[in-house]
Every structure is written in C-alpha cells, then in structure tokens.
Amino acid sequence: MKTRKTLLLYSVVVLLLLPIIISVSCRMATQDVHPDEISHESRAEPLPMFARAEYFVITEFGEMNHILQNEGPLGVYIRYPQWGGRTDLYIQRWAYDTFDAAVADFEIALTEDPDARGTLNIQFDSRLVHDRFASIIKRGYFSHTGLAHPMTITETFNIDTVEDRLLANEDILDFGQMDFILELMAEKLTETQPDAEPFLVYLDASWLSYLSLSPNSLVVMLARGEFLPAYIGSVKIELPYVALSTAFLLWDVYTEPPASPPTEAAPATEPPRDTAPPSPSVITPLPVQPQELDPNLPMVALTFDDGPSGYTGKILDLLEQHGGRATFMVLGNLINARQETLTRTIALGSEVIGHSWDHRNLTKLSAAEIRAEISDTSALIASVSGVSWPMFRPPYGAYNDTVKAIAAELGYAIIYWSVDTLDWKNRDPDWVYNAVMNDVADGAIVLMHDIHGTTADAMARVIPRLIEQGYQLVTVSELLYHRHGVLEPGRVYYSGR
Ligand code: ZN
Fold it and tell me: What distance in Å separates the CA atoms of residue 221 and residue 155, rounded to the nearest whole number?
C-alpha cells in the first residue's frame, strides 16, 4: 500500500501540526517586506533546480485558485486548479494542508529566530489527456532562514473527469505486473540519467508514487532527494503506454490497442465483488442520483457507525446501484479483517472516517489514550485506503472539553448527527425506514449502524426513496464543505445547516 497516493497520509502527518495555523497566519501579516527578497539574501543554498528551471504554470485544465500571503515574514504563493468536480476537494485540501504544515513549521522557526523569513511557493501543471483524464502535477518548495536546505514539495493527482473521481495509482498500473514495470523503469531511467544506475538496487514500487498522464506515455516523477540522492535533482521518466502494454490499465479509453503483451502477463481482471445481481423483479428504472452535485439542492449525509462488517457490502451495493455516497465511521480494530470493504468504499466515492480504535468512551480516557484512539485509527484508514479525512466521530457521541481540545490539537473536526435512527435498539427495517424518512431534512447527518442486517435491509428502501425525493446523498465532507467551508479543527458539526 506504500505506493498508493500519499496525499492523505501526508495530511494525517501535517494535521498533527494544524492547531497553530490560523492565528499565526493572521499574526504574521505585520511586516510589509516582500519575503522573496529576504529569503534570497539569506538562503543557505541555491533553490533546487526545478524551482528555477521548471517554475511554470500550465493551466490546460481547470481554473487557477490561489492561497496568497504577500505580507509578513512568510510569503505564500500556492496555486492550484479547480474544475467544478467533487475531486476539487482533494486538491484544495492538499493545498491547505501543505499551507498549514508550512505555517506551523515556520511558527517554530519564529520562536527560535524572531527575524526568520520564509517562502512557500507551489505551482502546478495541469493537462487534460485524451479529453478525459486530467493530470495535475504540483511542485514547489518551502524555504526559510532556519532551514539548511529548501524543502521540495511534489504531488500528483490524476482525475477521471467522466466519472469525477481521483485515480489511485492502482487504477493506472497493474501492480500485479510490478517486476515488468520496474524493469522498464530501470531501463528508461538509465537511458536519461546514467548517474542513477548505482541506486537502482533500491528501485521498488514506492518509486511509482508520483504518476502523471501525458498523451502517449505515463510520466513517473522522482522528487528531488526522495528516491535518488538530492544531487541528481528531480527526475522525470517517461514510460510509453505502448511499452507498458497490459500493465497500463487505461487502455480501453485510449484509441490505440496494446502492442504484443509481455508473455507472462496475466490478463488484468476485476477483483470479484460480492455484489448481488440486480433483482429480476425490478421493471421500472430505479432512481439514480445525478452525477453532478448541486450545492443549492437538498443534500443529506447518511452515516454508518461501528463497522466495517459483513453488512457493509450490501449498503455499498445499494449506493453503487443508485449512485449515492455515504460516510462510514469505522473502528480501527476491525479494519484489517475487511480491508477490501474499505478500499471499495473509497473507490465508490463514499468515505471512511474513524470512530475510535475499540469503541471506548473517550471522556473516560487519558489525553494520551484519546490521541491514540483518534490518530491510530486514522493512520490505519489512510494506509489501507489511501485516504483519510480529518474528522472523527466519538463512540456514544461522548465528548468533553478534553476531547475537543485534542481534536483541535490533532486537526480533526468532530462529527455528530442531527437524526438519530436508534437502529441499534429497533432491529426492524420498517422502523429504520420511518425513522429516517420522518426526520430527514436538507443538511441532515443521519446516524445508523452498518453492523445490523436490519439497517442494511432498510437502506434498500431508504436510498432510492431519498433520491426520489430530490436529496443528493453526499459524504459528510461534501456536505460540510458546501455548507460550512473548510473544516474547523475541534469544532463539533451536527449537520450541514
Ligand atoms: Zn459506535
């Protein structure tokens, strides 16, 4: 799972630094000095090569958005594209997380040197390939007077604009053909970068962390100092799709068919899913949620606690069938047994957030235990699914000032609910159906539990009925993003109103 997008793993790390941020960025806007001028004078070593030679913005896809801070000792110039899809959330979140982490780091530098100066500069290159796939490369650097070397920042995002979803690296490459891919990569790397040859012994799947799509080849970015020694600089390797053959998984939407496949390569097959075949008795078309999310139309976030369980798959089937999304609040100690449920949840556009490691009442634990309950669960979600939103739901809905303070410190929002179905007490699908339908309203967060078969059964009626009534079934993060903006760490959210 090392090779999966590092985006949110990274955000889990940076979120540890979150709390200092907002006050700092305000406080810092006091001195009117252009930060670039200062950091150039005092920088210990020249900027990494790309910051000079590859300092560019190509906006073939999306509209440019900014996080700018022109005044004060830390100059910030972050540019990122947004195109109107729900994948925008990932890009925006990454930009703010990177900003927050740099501000927190710079705050520490300021305590050591009140005259510290710094620059955070992140640009992007976005392209639309074959009218369908958007590839975004983010590159930049963070430099301040307390750092011996500027830190380089690299990330890539690949979006399927038709399905409006972020492509995982496993969606692009068949990781089952890793030996073949790495062989090709070694060959291409030594062609363009002979200096890298002695380091090929370290070549493994993690080198495929930053992928981007170009019209005829898959571009692998090796961020400066991350895989190869820093003196080699940042390296781009182009793997022609034709050479990748069946190891490249997006062939069917490209025009050219693969060349002769490598002899040992097994055909890429979809992993079997325990999806029930559609019922033959259904003759009228089922209500299906429109793909586009309209922030002005009613939306509701269905949430399911205490899984993943054997019933989660049934709820996912229904969401897939109708095109809705939901949020699953999982227990850390149940994740390993059902990793595929988690990855499928994410693949369907739903989300997974922590509900503690083992369902203990957080208000009765020590601060260290509370931190572990929240962070360990999120870290495991991120390592299994590649994604972890900075939110959690405390077991029993129990929180106090300590829990809120720790959530703020770790950068997490606390997710409560506005509709409690009491589905754990009333194990009856009709009862659950009525509990949802009687109390649902625009912006509602509905509490349910995917450990009960009766709740999963109820969803067979609840999900299509809500869509029929015009509700968009969204994730908690979508709901809160559209109704409250960027999440506030330590705040308790009850609904999208
Ligand atoms: Zn629970």
Answer: 9
Name the packing angle between helices 429-439 and 453-468 (round to 10°).
Answer: 40
What residues sit around ligand 1, an ion, with C-beta below 5 angstroms? 305-306, 395
CA distance 270 to 434: 37
Q: Which two tokens stand for residue 358?
A: 């083992």
**Measured in angstroms, how far is the CA atom of residue 168 from the centroid of ligand 1?**
29
- Is pLDDT above 90 for 28? no
Measured CA to CA, the distance from residue 317 to residue 450 in angstroms comes to 13
Of the ranges 18-27, 201-210, 211-220, 435-444, which one carries the lowest mean pLDDT score?
Answer: 18-27
Catalytic residue numbers?
Answer: 305, 449
Measured CA to CA, the distance from residue 217 to residue 239 in angstroms comes to: 5
- If pLDDT is split at 50, 70 and 90, which confidence band does 190 have? very high
Q: How far is the CA of 424 from the centre of ligand 1 (A)?
A: 10
The pair phi, psi for residue 7, each rounded to 5°, is: -45, -60
